[in-house]
Write a structure and sequence with these properties.
Chain lengths: ~150, ~150
């Protein structure tokens, strides 16, 4: 029901939100969100066009959220990469349904509207796991094992 | 958000419901629902497999609803042709998310659940236009013009 592009874009946004403003490189985002790099470049471009992400080249470059994760809704992200299509006109091109959808298309549009509303109500900030130091899309145990290895070194 | 297959299947069901038990041939259904015949055969097969439609060959053959349109929900139809996929396990295969989805996937699954519920509550009978003698997916004016022509002949 939701496209792979939508899924990737949301992972990217939640991951960037979890970094609290520290820029992330394409390679870091790809690894942390399990998104193919080629795909990711396109997703990041659309997120930047929608002014949700800011990317900077160079040595300390990378991508950050363009504004606070609290102020970005799931719907903002979805609309930036793969917009939800409401049924605003008759998909069959029936003239007498133009201003007034038939019951089927009215009902389908209502269902799409429910998703749109739910997404508008959810902020990216709400989707960042609360456990401190845990990356949103990595196994908690793996991360802590890595930390332990670092400490041992 | 909803697939073309879902859209076609729902049109077919609403059209059959509007015929109050009179069998419809593939050609009739294709014309009345603007569905390509090849596609339609596949959709009808899946609807028959789910026991929502009954088809009979022969001179007075055709397809009819297998039970009352009141007792068939939109969800029944969707599940027969292109099932809604709930997020029941972590799409990233993260072990620690297996039993307990991360906030992102929990929220996405909730949105999908809203659609599922809305579709379960809607019956096919509710989607048949109330105006008597009007085919659900045809221009009312065209139908009445055809009628007038018949009368003139």
């Amino acid at each position: 029901m939701l496209s792979q592009t939508t899924e990737y874009a949301l992972r990217v946004m939640v991951y960037l939100a979890s970094r609290s403003g520290e820029p992330a490189t394409i390679a870091q985002i790809a690894a942390a969100t399990q998104t193919p790099e080629g795909y990711l470049a396109k997703v990041l471009r659309n997120l930047a066009l929608a002014e949700l992400v800011r990317s900077q080249r160079g040595l300390h470059g990378g991508s950050v959220l363009a504004r606070s994760a609290k102020s970005i809704s799931v719907l903002d992200v979805v609309q930036a990469v793969d917009p939800i299509q409401r049924i605003t006109q008759c998909p069959l091109g029936i003239k007498s349904h133009a201003a007034n959808l038939c019951p089927l298309h009215r009902r389908l549009d209502e269902a799409i509207g429910l998703v749109e509303k739910a997404f508008a109500r959810s902020s990216i900030a709400e989707l960042v796991p609360e456990q401190a130091g845990v990356e949103p899309f990595r196994d908690a145990s793996v991360v802590s094992r890595r930390r332990k290895l670092k400490v041992l070194r």
